[in-house]
Amino acid sequence: MACRVSLRTEERGTPVELDPEDMKAVILRMKRAHGHLASVIRMLEDGAECEDVLTQLAAVNKALSRSGYVIVANGLQKCIAKPDGLSGTDAKKMEKLFLSLA
Fold first, then answer.
1. Rounded to an integer, what distance in angstroms lies between the CA atom of residue 102 and that of residue 100?
2. Distance of CA 57 to CAs 22, 36, 49, 60, 70, Å?
3. Residue 21 backbone phi and psi in degrees, to 5
4. What whole-number distance in Å separates Cα of residue 55 and Cα of residue 69?
């Protein structure tokens, strides 16, 4: 059974279905990033060194970006695997979503 995640642009689109294991991994990565971000905030409040804060913030950013890439990549795989394939409009939407993560 697949989980459904809505990736929406300006108009309502078709939800992308993610495999439960993929969904579990994405959620776990995002939860870690959430905790990591809380640590970065504490570092700022405690007056930590700038380089240390930026290094940890970069790690949070990377974790969130990878989560987004997994969602988009899975969406593309599901769309391409459909019997009718990926329409030109769907391809453009997926490209726009992918590039928004860059």
1. 6
2. 24, 8, 12, 5, 20
3. -70, -40
4. 21
- Domain 19-100 is classified in which CATH homologous superfamily? Metal-sensitive repressor, helix protomer (1.20.58.1000)
pTM here is: 0.66
* Tokens linked to 36: 């990591």
Q: Is the pLDDT of residue 73 over 60?
A: yes
Query: How is residue 22 written in tokens?
Result: 């993929």
Give the single-character DSSP code of 15.
P
pLDDT in tens, 16-57: 567 788 888 888 999 999 999 999 999 999 999 999 999 999
DSSP type of residue 11? S
Give me 8's structure tokens: 């929406």
Name the pLDDT band for 1 (thresholds 50, 70, 90): very low
Residue with tokens 């990878």: 66
Pairing of strands 16-18, 3-5: antiparallel
**Cα separation, 86 vs 47, whole angstroms:** 50
